[in-house]
């Protein structure tokens, strides 16, 4: 219990430091949220600055913003004046969670079996072919994969829409695949390497010498310890999905948090960027806690260390 309480305090401190650093960096960047090619009259600029507290000292702005956040109010959006940041996140976060979650499930659902298949056929042509494909998937960035998928499946074959979001499975296929491909490739390579190491362990050689079948060796003795590195990889995989969602959502025109983050950063929408950073940071903290609990459940040594 004490360990989990310590982790909770550490998570809150991490979120506070992340938000504070983002607040300072946004204010230090050149330009402002209401800059335009044609300058507004001074009285209009003064009214806007007073409305959004931008005329106050930086420390005062930070104190008011932090107090609002502690009350659950992320403030108004500068770029979308008819909406608050809470409303924008409530509309966009579920879309990003659906796409990111499906991409991670696809990466695990295909990457783990492909990695196991390659490990069981190590050195054969099927293993080399799978690892070559995985290396290719890791080397091609998302901003190249996404347009290629649009070009092939939307423009060429006309099987799927090129962009937009209507909540249907057809509008989710290409974004999910674009997000999943690099993680799928890495998952396959990681599973193969880990399982090969486990299969070469002394206790498995002894079990094989006692006449146990290869299937029983794999499912009863090798698969669980072989998947521990894959479970530990889930945290950076989530970060990869989150960072890649900004590119993918821009390419496909999906109104998710990644797209709002990019637009907010370009337009100096301070409150929107800070709201997205806090939401993503909280999601990553929760995922890290879930991954640690899952690893402890799979590995008794970790469970004893956390007790």
From TrEMBL:
It is found in: Cell membrane. One of its GO terms (cellular component) is plasma membrane. The keyword Protein biosynthesis does not apply. InterPro entries: MetI-like, MetI-like_sf. CDD domains: TM_PBP2 (cd06261). Keywords: Cell membrane, Membrane, Transmembrane, Transmembrane helix, Transport. Belongs to the binding-protein-dependent transport system permease family. OppBC subfamily. It is a multi-pass membrane protein. This is ABC transmembrane type-1 domain-containing protein. GO terms for molecular function: dipeptide transmembrane transporter activity. The chain crosses the membrane at residues 97-120, 132-157, 169-188, 226-252, 272-291. Residues 93-295 form the ABC transmembrane type-1 domain. SUPFAM superfamilies: MetI-like (SSF161098). PROSITE patterns: ABC_TM1. Pfam families: BPD_transp_1 (PF00528).
């Amino acid at each position: 219990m004490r360990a989990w309480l310590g982790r909770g305090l550490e998570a809150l401190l991490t979120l506070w430091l992340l938000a504070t650093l983002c607040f300072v960096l946004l204010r230090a960047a050149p330009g402002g949220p209401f800059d335009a090619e044609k300058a507004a009259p001074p009285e209009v600029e003064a009214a806007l600055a007073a409305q959004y507290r931008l005329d106050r000292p930086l420390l005062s702005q930070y104190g008011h913003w932090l107090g609002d956040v502690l009350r659950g109010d992320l403030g108004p959006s500068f770029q979308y004046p008819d909406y608050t940041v809470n409303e924008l996140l409530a509309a966009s976060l579920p879309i990003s969670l659906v796409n990111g979650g499906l991409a991670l499930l696809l990466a695990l659902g295909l990457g783990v079996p492909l990695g196991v298949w390659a490990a069981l056929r190590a050195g054969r042509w099927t293993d080399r072919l799978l690892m070559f494909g995985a290396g290719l998937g890791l080397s091609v960035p998302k901003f190249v994969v996404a347009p290629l998928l649009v070009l092939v499946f939307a423009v060429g074959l006309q099987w799927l829409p090129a962009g937009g979001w209507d909540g249907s499975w057809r509008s989710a296929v290409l974004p999910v695949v674009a997000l999943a491909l690099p993680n799928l490739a890495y998952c396959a390579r990681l599973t193969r390497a880990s399982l090969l190491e486990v299969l070469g362990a002394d206790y498995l050689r002894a079990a094989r010498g006692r006449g146990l079948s290869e299937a029983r060796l794999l499912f009863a003795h090798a698969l669980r310890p072989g998947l521990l590195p894959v479970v530990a990889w889930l945290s950076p995989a989530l970060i990869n999905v989150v960072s890649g969602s900004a590119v993918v959502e821009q390419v496909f025109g999906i109104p998710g948090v990644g797209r709002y983050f990019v637009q907010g950063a370009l337009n100096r929408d301070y409150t929107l960027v800070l709201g997205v950073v806090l939401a993503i940071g909280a999601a990553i903290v929760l995922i890290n806690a879930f991954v640690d609990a899952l690893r402890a459940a799979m590995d008794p040594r970790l469970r004893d260390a956390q007790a």
